[in-house]
UniProtKB/TrEMBL annotation:
<keyword id="KW-0375">Hydrogen ion transport</keyword>
<dbReference type="GO" id="GO:0045259">
    <property type="term" value="C:proton-transporting ATP synthase complex"/>
</dbReference>
<keyword id="KW-0406">Ion transport</keyword>
<dbReference type="InterPro" id="IPR020546">
    <property type="entry name" value="ATP_synth_F1_dsu/esu_N"/>
</dbReference>
<dbReference type="InterPro" id="IPR001469">
    <property type="entry name" value="ATP_synth_F1_dsu/esu"/>
</dbReference>
<keyword id="KW-0472">Membrane</keyword>
<feature type="domain" description="ATP synthase F1 complex delta/epsilon subunit N-terminal">
    <location>
        <begin position="32"/>
        <end position="111"/>
    </location>
</feature>
<keyword id="KW-0813">Transport</keyword>
<dbReference type="Pfam" id="PF02823">
    <property type="entry name" value="ATP-synt_DE_N"/>
</dbReference>
<dbReference type="InterPro" id="IPR036771">
    <property type="entry name" value="ATPsynth_dsu/esu_N"/>
</dbReference>
<keyword id="KW-0175">Coiled coil</keyword>
<dbReference type="GO" id="GO:0046933">
    <property type="term" value="F:proton-transporting ATP synthase activity, rotational mechanism"/>
</dbReference>
<keyword id="KW-0809">Transit peptide</keyword>
<comment type="similarity">
    <text>Belongs to the ATPase epsilon chain family.</text>
</comment>
<keyword id="KW-0139">CF(1)</keyword>
<protein>
    <recommendedName>
        <fullName>F-ATPase delta subunit</fullName>
    </recommendedName>
</protein>
<keyword id="KW-0066">ATP synthesis</keyword>
Length: 161
């Protein structure tokens, strides 16, 4: 009897662990909160889709996406609003959380709309970061300079788009 009960519990547990691909059935909503230290861009606003750059690869989020926690890499977050309008925001780093209830939180260290990026300032920042990398005296300085170079390269790429 105990063995039958144990097998029944295992079978039930396996069924609960099955996951499939996310889809976006009509009527489902996804609430987005997107904030950085300098500004709140979206505050529980319902949106259609969010495309994010992460260290495990860029990916898109639709309603009913599997719960996810990821680290943002420098790049552009694209938000497709319900009216089809696309908002593109550059992020330096941060986290993305997708919850069971289809709510999404993007928390960025720093974020700026693409139209506010200055290509010449980005080029200057890249040159400075590369110079700091070349003159790095220790591993810590080298690591900090590499991060600055990566962010500056992504800002330059976003500003040129």
């Amino acid at each position: 009897m105990a063995l039958a009960f144990r097998n029944m519990l295992r079978t039930a547990a396996r069924r609960m662990q099955v996951r499939g691909y996310a889809d976006a059935p009509k009527g489902d909503e996804m609430a987005l909160t997107f904030a950085a230290g300098n500004k709140v861009f979206f505050n529980k606003q319902v949106v259609k889709q969010i495309d994010v750059p992460s260290f495990s690869g860029s990916f898109g989020i639709l309603p009913k996406h599997v719960p996810t926690l990821a680290v943002l890499r420098p790049g552009v977050v694209t938000v497709v609003e319900n009216d089809g309008k696309q908002t593109k925001i550059f992020v330096s780093s941060g986290t993305i959380t997708v919850n069971d209830d289809s709510s999404v939180q993007v928390l960025a260290e720093e974020a700026h709309p693409l139209e506010s990026l200055d290509r010449s300032a980005a080029q200057e920042a890249l040159s400075k970061a590369q110079s700091e990398l070349n003159s790095a005296a220790n591993e810590r300085a080298k690591a900090e300079a590499l991060i600055a170079v990566e962010v500056a390269e992504e800002v330059l790429k976003a500003a040129s788009a």
